[in-house]
Design goal:
The protein is an alpha/beta fold. The protein has helices at about 1-30, 40-55, 65-75, 80-90, 95-100, 100-105, 105-120, 120-125, 135-150, 150-165, 165-185, 200-220, 235-245, 255-265, 265-280, 285-300, 310-330, 335-360, 370-395, 400-425, 445-460, 475-480, 535-545, and strands at about 440-445, 470, 490, 500-505, 515-525, 550-560. Helix 2 packs across helix 3, helix 7 crosses helix 17 (about 310-330) and helix 15 crosses helix 16. It is globular and about 85 Å long. The N and C termini lie far apart (about 95 Å).
């Protein structure tokens, strides 16, 4: 009976874990190819496309992405979905990492952390971006966890892929390494790890890890042997990381902290609670996790190249702290289940009322006379929640009051996380302007591509192929958008003697031979001027996902004889 019970518990554990993995995949893969690749993403995707075409290319800092993506682009289509597939798929494996450390953090906290990491906005949003720190985070933590789990070959593969995942790998190594060093010096952190068993000596494990590491570096680093020259750039991430100390800071000071509050407020609130509890109890694990999160935030704030995406190195330990403290504090009362449900429902309803009042408060159309009313309503909601919890505490029990409050707050947090994560998937009606890379614009190539396709369809029976000349706009995003057309040429200017069928120029630039063309201006991209926004604009974006934008247009010129019924003007 005992063995059967253990078997059932293990089966249930794996079913729950794979449920979290399926949820993570859903959030990361749904509509993955809908949004166009921005210039930062397209730069890496074009490198992978060059490998698929057998063209010479220089690998970027995110070596593992280029090496892994070249193969599916070679075997299948050159779609946005396949270009983003590996970061999204690998990002979903974040849910398995707490399982590898469940001997230290506990099984229930590991399962709770898995679900939190599956839907957490920063984990979802960055998994859907090419070149983000998610691949570095997942592979680095997997290598550590698999090594502790006595799987040296898998640890070596993960370590190699992490090593080739760009400068973010070295950010994580530095932050975690410094945290481990200080934790060992201050409170003997390594004592929480059991000694290695005698029947599994370390030397064979190191050997298997080394062999797997080298083989992975060679296979993936060469793009599955399609680009052997790529092996020379395996350590380009380290070079970029060191060079980052000498670069000018690209984002305003405190930008990572702003992203942390915007995307990881739940991890911050509960994580700090868990960290403070660990300090009071002198728990070595909680103190290490809190130090990891603190040092990580300090480093990415001071590091000149530390962008908002690096906050995943901060939110991961915070989510582990949060899961442990929630499991500790949550107690299902033996009785008074009705009171528990009522208290949780009241917390949800009042929190929704506060959220609506706050959204109305930040609306620019709200009259100033009503702003005071909204503030009073919000303050009243907070006071009402406190009063309800105190009444339940004295009328029933502290367990019912605390559990009802945590259940209601957890539901509110869940809805908020799902809402923010959905915005990053492109399912929402608003254009997804996010804080990850504030200098990157959202590309809108649809009308440009539709117009080109119509011109090609109108002239499908022609004897001569139609050339596309791009002048004055040579960006990775435009090159990726035009990747499916055979005869595309990028030139710095238009020669007066040339007469391509389709001509693309910046807005305001009129070629000398424009008399033989018909032009149409089209919106190519939109950008949020983050650096010029005021605090009110940030609040509006935070609660309504609305932000002022600046549009950039291009002109699509079509030779007159290619238009329906057109003739060339001599």
């Amino acid at each position: 009976m005992v063995q059967g019970s253990r078997y059932n518990n293990a089966t249930k554990h794996w079913v729950i874990l794979f449920g979290a993995f399926a949820l993570a995949l859903t959030f990361r893969l749904i509509r993955l190819g809908t949004l166009a690749l921005n210039d930062l993403e397209a730069q890496l995707a074009l490198q992978a496309l060059s490998i698929a075409k057998g063209e010479p290319t220089l690998f970027g800092g995110v070596h593992s992405y280029v090496g892994l993506t070249g193969l599916p682009l070679f075997l299948w289509s050159k779609s946005n979905f396949l270009a983003r597939f590996w970061p999204a798929f690998i990002g979903a494996f974040i849910v398995f990492i707490p399982l590898l450390f469940e001997n230290y953090i506990g099984r229930k906290p590991a399962l709770l952390a898995a679900f939190a990491l599956a839907i957490s906005p920063e984990m979802v949003g960055l998994s859907r971006l090419i070149g983000s720190p998610m691949m570095a985070l997942v592979f680095t933590l997997l290598s550590v966890g698999l090594w502790l789990y006595r799987k040296p070959a898998l640890a070596g593969i993960s370590l190699a892929l992490g090593l080739m995942s760009g400068p973010s790998f070295w950010v994580g190594v530095l932050v975690m390494g410094l945290s481990l060093f200080l934790s060992e010096r201050l409170f003997n952190f390594f004592k929480i790890f059991p000694p290695a068993p005698d029947d599994n000596p370390a030397r064979p494990m190191w050997g298997r890890l080394g062999i797997a590491l080298v083989l992975t570096l060679v296979v993936v680093g060469s793009g599955f042997f399609m680009a052997p020259s790529g092996l020379s750039g395996i350590f380009s991430g380290l070079y970029d990381f060191i060079r980052g100390f000498q670069q000018v800071c690209l984002v305003p000071f405190g930008w990572p902290a702003l992203a942390l509050l915007a995307y990881g407020a739940g991890s911050v609130g509960f994580g700090l609670w868990g960290g403070i509890r660990g300090l009071l109890l002198k728990s070595k694990l909680e103190m290490f996790l809190l130090m990891w999160a603190g040092l990580g935030l300090v480093f990415i704030t001071l590091y000149p190249q530390g962008g908002a995406g690096e906050i995943v190195w901060v939110t991961f330990p915070l989510w582990i702290l949060a899961s442990r403290v929630i499991i500790f504090a949550w107690r299902l009362p033996e009785t008074s289940h009705l009171a528990l449900g009522i208290s949780a429902a009241l917390v949800v309803v009042i929190a929704a009322f506060i959220a609506l009042a706050l959204r109305s408060l930040v609306a620019p159309t709200l009259p100033q006379s009503q702003q005071v009313n909204m503030l009073i309503a919000m303050a009243g909601g907070v006071v009402l929640i406190i009063a309800i919890i105190l009444l339940i505490n004295y009328g029933w029990s502290e367990v019912v009051a605390l559990s009802g409050f945590l259940l209601g707050l957890g539901l509110v947090l869940l809805v908020g996380m799902v809402s923010v994560s959905v915005n990053s998937t492109g399912l929402a009606t608003q254009m997804p302007f996010e804080l990850w890379y504030p200098d990157e614009a959202v590309l809108l190539p649809e009308w440009t591509l539709v117009t080109i396709d119509r011109i090609l369809d109108w002239n499908a029976r022609g004897y001569k192929p139609i050339d596309i000349l791009v002048s004055g706009i040579d960006t990775p995003g435009l090159r990726w958008a035009l990747r499916s057309y055979d005869r595309v040429v990028f030139e710095p200017f238009v020669s007066p003697q040339s007469s391509p069928g389709i001509l693309i120029t910046p807005i305001g630039e009129i070629p000398e031979n424009a008399h033989g063309y018909q032009g149409q201006s089209l919106v190519w991209q939109q950008k949020a001027p983050w650096h010029t926004l005021n605090p009110g604009d940030y609040l509006i974006w935070l609660f309504a996902r609305e932000v002022p934008t600046v549009s950039q247009e291009l002109i699509l010129w079509v030779r007159t004889d290619l238009m329906p019924g057109g003739q060339i003007n001599d």
